[in-house]
Description:
Helix content is about 55%, strand content about 15%. A hairpin with a 2-residue loop joins strand 2 (about 35-40) and strand 3. The protein is of the alpha+beta class.
Amino acid sequence: MEALAQLPVIRPITDMRTQLNDVCRQATETQEPIVLTKNGTASYVLMDSDAYAAAERRSRVYLALREAEIEERYRPETLTAQESDAKMREIFSLWGMDYA
């Protein structure tokens, strides 16, 4: 049985003015984004900085894995370490740099 997705926390943007400490506490405790609405429409998203950093790390890892998956699919040949080093030396020399 799949776990149910957590519903987003939704608060009116006026809470930022009238209940700022409570909004910040909630963001820290839940580690989930808080959707701030203006006139009933989602306008902004507030996140705890640690939750944001974790989400960014997950995103970067996911993108790197996806890139590797695509590269593997469309470049099935493999290179030896010597071939890879030679290719890197060639690229670096085109840039006018030394490959160590």
